[in-house]
Amino acid sequence: MARKNNGPKRDTVQEERQRILTNDTPYAVREAYVKLRTNLLFSVANKKKGETLVFVVTSSNQAEGKSTTASNVAVSFAMMGMNTLLVDLDLRKPNVHRLWNLEMSGGLSNLLTNVGQFEIHDVKDIPLSIITSGDIPPNPSELLASDNFKQVLEDMKKEFQIIILDTPPVNVVADAQIAAHQADGVLLVVRSGSTQNGDIKLAEDALRRSEAKIAGVVITAFNAKSTKYGYRYGNYKYGSKYSYSSGYYDYYSSDQRESKDKEN
């Protein structure tokens, strides 16, 4: 007897690629990312002018729209004219190269291990560059925790104004926590109708243990016309007023709370 899969259905590559921001993207979606971008900048208002901003994008579990969100955040900053770098830090199950139709090899792992060639991919018409994951290494966490990665990140900061790091799910492996410790803020991606409150709480606790600054939450696969979704975090409940016909939605709320309410 076939087993029933209760997990979220992963979108096809074509569906994911269609969700990358362009000038033809529906206004409501573009505006949601403009608000997200603006709030991210507000969240690091204490940074000195001209300093490179580094943001980690992670999720609690797999198939929650993390890589699409990371790509669109990077595109949004690039559309603003900021020199932006998108890095696939998921050295286990990378997805950025699939979204952008690039070769996986020749990426970050190759740079960190000095094995094979390394290439930075430039996106046409906007100041956005992409570094893929590279070949899958046997020791991803060790590579990201190495002094070599810290130096590579410092070198990236010399060339780019914005760096977006797409990491593995925080509830699955420790890679996101390692990267978050070196970032200015973290976006946590949750999927409407799939991500459970307990998963979100586990992700939040893991990030806070690494002293990460949770800059906000993005809800994907949200249909405001048919779904009422949200979860309580601190004194706020995140939800949305925005949607469009495809049923894809991203929303951001700034993390400005320290106290947390108990769930009813």
3D structure, described in words:
- With 264 residues, the protein is an alpha/beta fold.
- It has one domain: P-loop containing nucleotide triphosphate hydrolases (Rossmann fold), CATH 3.40.50.300.
- Helices cover 31% and strands 17% of the residues.
- Strands 3-4-2-5-1-6-7-10 form an 8-stranded mixed β-sheet, with helices on both faces. It has a two-stranded antiparallel sheet with strand order 8-9.
- Helix 2 packs across helix 3 (66-79).
- The chain is globular.
- Residues 1-8 and 227-264 have low confidence and may be disordered.
Overall strand count: 10
- Mean pLDDT across the residues is 82
| Number of spatially distinct domains | 1
Task: Describe the strand arrangement of the main beta sheet, using strand numbers.
Answer: 3-4-2-5-1-6-7-10
| Number of helical regions | 9
Fraction of residues in H or I helices: 25-40%
Report the biggest beta sheet as strand number plus sense, adding barrel if it closes. Answer: 8 strands, mixed
| CATH class call | Alpha Beta
What are the secondary-structure elements, in order, as H or E? HHEHEHHEEHHEHEHEEEE
Euclidean distance between termini CA atoms: 38 Å
Structure classification? alpha/beta
Topology (SSEs and partners):
Blueprint: H1 13-18, H2 27-43, E1 53-59, H3 66-79, E2 84-88, H4 96-99, H5 108-113, E3 121-122, E4 128-131, H6 140-144, H7 147-157, E5 162-166, H8 175-180, E6 185-191, H9 197-209, E7 214-220, E8 231-233, E9 236-238, E10 252-254
Parallel strand pairs: 1-5, 1-6, 2-4, 2-5, 6-7
Antiparallel strand pairs: 3-4, 7-10, 8-9
